[in-house]
């Protein structure tokens, strides 16, 4: 519990996480508000169109949580005070993942709530299990994405490099893989963020072609993120802070 408290204090001791939290909530909710204000009607899926904006900012926040320590050298003091590096990194990752979970849930339900206010005539009731997954599932996707970002941060150690990898992979690389001749589309189906999106929107047009169901897609996404984190943990143990 002491490590968790320490990591929480370190995370919120700078302005960057606060700005990231603000943007991670303001961007998806603001985007949804702009759509709802001019739209003639909205569906439940439409209320979550902006979640990826919040996800990108959350990836940056999680990467900063670890790379900033390497940048300013505070990670050395942390490892000297607590030689058990695994415990330190688990505590840091847990704090960031819980924060990402909260951001995801507030952003998802906030976008849904503002849509119900601006579009009272649209049927936006959450009644089925699939609809609950589409809204409430944003939080777990954010949490596992934060684990991935911390893992990449442990491997790269530099903020610019970690953020570049995370954003380019999620926004560009997974889309471009589909252009690879013959096998591109099959490979794309197994990309982590494609799977995460399938978990949230499973049952739509892509569901027939996806190799896993929505919950299997979440499990796959979680396995990839934890796998990257574990690789980062091994590398952190093997090299100097």
UniProtKB/TrEMBL annotation:
The chain crosses the membrane at residues 18-37, 49-68, 89-115, 135-156, 163-181, 215-235. Keywords: Membrane, Transmembrane, Transmembrane helix. The keyword Cell membrane does not apply. The keyword Membrane applies. This is ABC transporter permease. It comes from Saccharopolyspora aridisoli.
